[in-house]
Write a structure and sequence with these properties.
single chain, about 200 residues, globular
Length: about 200
């Protein structure tokens, strides 16, 4: 797959990711939920840190995280370019493109959203607000996709967790997160094909 096709994949994912985030940010109050199906909800939250809301403590924790993400994206971008020059497999090119697009999508939130939007507490946020909620590199990532497929109590015979309430799946995420997870999944499931060497016949 050519680098041009990779850029097309990245562009499409970024457009869908940012459109969905901006729509949710400007049309939902923080914590608002819309039930699409019993097992699928649109649930607006903002993530200040990493996955599942994990934060790096301290005054400069958020700045460190955003800076690390930017450096990581540069690294992934180089990986994508290097893979294209070596005519790597389509599996690898697609996987890297997805991971790059997802990482860049969340970086946009972290870098810019704090100075573009005002807060969403109890009212709809406005874009290009005169009273932004944060500062450069301190934006919050917008999450909204929620799939509580099953919720109940685990059987008592299970060790450790038996008899405790359990929900599957309790993560709330966005399009960028989906892209990263899909890219990593491709690398794991199709590992041999993704990192296959070209044969003398030019196949993988």
């Amino acid at each position: 797959m050519s680098l041009r096709n990779s850029v097309l994949i990245i562009t499409i994912i970024l457009l869908v990711d940012q459109f969905s985030k901006i729509y949710i940010k400007t049309n939902f109050v923080l914590g608002e939920t819309v039930h699409v199906f019993e097992w699928f909800k649109i649930y607006f939250i903002e993530n200040e840190g990493m996955a599942w809301g994990t934060k790096i403590p301290g005054e400069y924790g958020k700045l460190f995280l955003t800076t690390f993400r930017i450096l990581a994206v540069f690294g992934i971008g180089y990986w994508l370019y290097d893979a294209s020059t070596k005519h790597s497999s389509n599996y690898l090119m697609v996987a890297i493109s997805l991971i790059f697009a997802g990482a860049l999508g969340n970086i946009i939130d972290s870098v810019f959203y704090g100075v573009i939007f005002d807060d969403s507490y109890g009212h709809l946020s406005t874009m290009f607000s005169e009273n932004p909620y944060g500062s450069w590199f301190h934006g919050k990532v917008v999450d909204m996709l929620y799939f509580p497929i099953w919720e109940g109590t685990l059987p008592s015979w299970l060790p450790i967790w038996g008899g405790q309430p359990f929900k599957f799946f309790n993560a709330i995420f966005n399009i960028a997160d989906m892209a990263i997870s899909t890219g990593v999944g491709i690398l794991i499931v199709f590992n041999h094909k993704a990192f296959a060497k070209k044969t003398s016949l030019g196949t993988y």
